[in-house]
Amino acid sequence: MAVLVLLTTFVIFILTYSISTQSPLIARSRNFLTVFHQKNLTGHNYEKKILFWTPMFELSSEELAINHRKCLLQCDVRCAVTSDRREVSSVDAVMFHLRDLWVGGIGTNIFVPLPGYRSASQVWVLYNMESLAYLQGDLNALNGYFNWTVWYRKDSTISIPYGQVSDLNKTEIIAMSKHLETSNFFREKSKTVTGMISHCKDYARRYKVINELKKYIKVEMFGDCYGTPCKGNFTECENLLKDYKFYLALENSICKDYVTEKYWGALARNQVPIVNWKNISDNIVIPNSYINIHDFKDMKALANYLNIVGYVVLPTFPTGDIREPDIRVR
């Protein structure tokens, strides 16, 4: 479903974006034919066609086309999608999923066969939502092929982040204010820190952060890496986590603008996400909605801060010399 929603955003974008002004790619011993012909692609009256050239994870190109046809029935746009490679000469855009470009998996430099036909008014689009740390093929070998990128990064041609920041309207602000008069999310939660990780070996070395944090505060982890996998449905897995005040929304790698469902899911459960970002563009996330581990000199300092924040909203503040921390929840 997430893949379908993200790609539908691209479908709508291509309907309103002028592609007649795009320059043809520079051919560097490429095995495709460039055909120059005139075609008006800028108006809403022109039904644009998108060809899915590669599969996307477990979805075949045929399944992608079928799913998007169903989705487009609910839209006010005119657009056609296809997986028939024989139609390459008549489509306006060709979509390639980066991870599925490599034959036999990532880590090789052998790519799937690319179209043998190319029009100057046709755009080739590279789609990716994965961290580049895990795309170990030679990306330089793709230089000169693609016109557009559709990624989570803000500097992509079409930016499709995992979540979207938007301001509340006046009605929503009033409704939320009334709700907060009678609700206290932290007070309703009885546990402190949790996380769910099933990708054990990662470039961010999350296990080191978690093991060190456990020395100073109680942390209860779920997932295959901790022998407590969630084998139920989505609701059952969410129920395992929702009673905790803080969620370790640590990404498996530190890449520009790479903020996944870990952060957004924590907010949906009314938790404070604990993150490990280093290079995030403005407006990617909600200001003052998270705690970043890199704002602390060590995990002991982070644990002390979590203990303070966790108590602040309780009916009685703990006794003792607890001072207001210098670092606020970001």
Q: How would you characterize the overall build of this protein?
A:
It is a single chain. The chain is α/β, with parallel strands linked by helices. The chain folds into two domains: 2-159, no CATH class; 170-312, Glycosyl transferase family 10, C-terminal domain (Rossmann fold). It has seven helices and 13 strands. The chain is globular and about 65 Å long. Mean pLDDT is 81; it is low at 14-42 and 314-330.
Strand-helix topology:
Layout: H1 2-16, E1 33-35, E2 48-52, H2 61-72, E3 79-82, E4 93-97, E5 117-119, E6 123-128, E7 148-151, E8 158-159, H3 170-182, E9 191-196, H4 206-213, E10 219-222, H5 234-241, E11 244-248, H6 261-268, E12 272-275, E13 291-292, H7 299-312
Parallel strand pairs: 1-5, 2-3, 2-4, 4-6, 6-7, 7-8, 9-10, 9-11, 11-12, 12-13
C-alpha termini separation: 30 Å
Uncertain residue segments: 14-42, 314-330
**What is the N-to-C succession of helices and strands?**
HEEHEEEEEEHEHEHEHEEH
Q: What share of residues are in beta strands?
A: 15-25%
Q: Considering DSSP H and I runs of 4 or more, what fraction of the residues is helical?
A: 10-25%
User: Largest sheet, order of strands side by side?
Assistant: 3-2-4-6-7-8
